[in-house]
Amino acid sequence: MNRLLIILLALSYTSVFAYSGEGHINLGDKASELEDEGKSRDIHPSLSEIRKMHPEFLLHKRDKTLRQGVRTKRDSLKACVNCHSTSKDGEYIPVNAPDQFCSTCHQKVGVSLDCFSCHRTTPQEDL
Amino acid sequence: MSKKLNRRDFIKSTTASTAGVATIASGISLTTFAVNDNPVTKEKRWGMLVDINQLSESDIDNMVNACQEENGWGNETHSTGHQKPSWIKKIKVKDRATGKIDSLPMMCQHCEQPPCVDVCPTNASMRREDGVVLVDKHLCIGCRYCMMACPYDARSFVHENLSNQKEHMPRGKGTVESCTLCVHRVDKGGVPACAEAVSGEGVIFGDLYDADSKINQTLKKIQSTQIRADLNLNTGVRYSGI
Ligand code: SF4
Ligand code: SF4
User: Fold this and answer.
1) Domains of chain B listed by start with CATH number
2) Nearest C-alpha of chain B: how many angstroms from A119?
3) pTM for the whole structure
């Protein structure tokens, strides 16, 4: 058990620092805009927290939304997709496509995502 | 973790949530609707009253189309016949004695005692405090017990990979789905898409418990029925004119 924990911790450590410094290679259109304006910290006050904890945030939020009808923007997957999608030639690329925001880290650490067999992968509004 | 509210606090905080627009960065504005961040409670029970006499065949078709449009089902290309999802459908009932045929829209009846919830092994099939019955697709293992248990044939199973879903309505292969009473609208103070698609008072949506609501008042006045009332499921969807 302990050994497992260490492996897990080591894994999360490397994944958390896989894109250390400010540069995620593909932040997404709106998120990049916010970063340029120096406003990313208004949304994610701590970079390491969101990198480590986003699965927990999403899990907590999903139950609150689905079972209790709490539909706030904070920690909603929709809001992640809205900010972190990248567009090319007037169209959004699915956020889980290779080398897009969600997949870069998950590819690296070998975690397969199952959010997007049901959830929409691009912002709803057209460009 | 969740703050306990007494009833008065709850009412205060609900009335205080108002619509507004906040600008977080130039070019990006977050429109906040009257989103309530309090959990739903059993002080409400959402329901719908369908008046068959006021609905034409095309009204019912419009309801079906509105549901498809709103929730994004009906474009499955690989599913055949009974595999095709159907959240709401037009059914015909015939009086054996007189031969009179009525058409009515049929969707999840949002039972108070839902058999689909009783049989679910994973607690995916669930009933919200305010009476809306949903499938938590995160937990659904696709066993389809609930489909067998539902007396109204209200549930469908997604047989194929989907993409381009509606933002507010995640759907995917291997899970069961059914009418959600358009909770994503209702939670923001709206009405279900099918009710909106009908002009006049053919479909009334509202809180069954609220004595001031139109649905409550109408149900007190007129003769209405629950389909298969003999099952004692106390459905949230009621019908009149049959
Ligand atoms: S109508 Fe069927 S799916 Fe809807 S709550 Fe009742 S048993 Fe469940
Ligand atoms: S198909 Fe899904 S919702 Fe239905 S009973 Fe099985 S696990 Fe529950």
Assistant:
1) 2-240 (3.30.70.20)
2) 5
3) 0.83
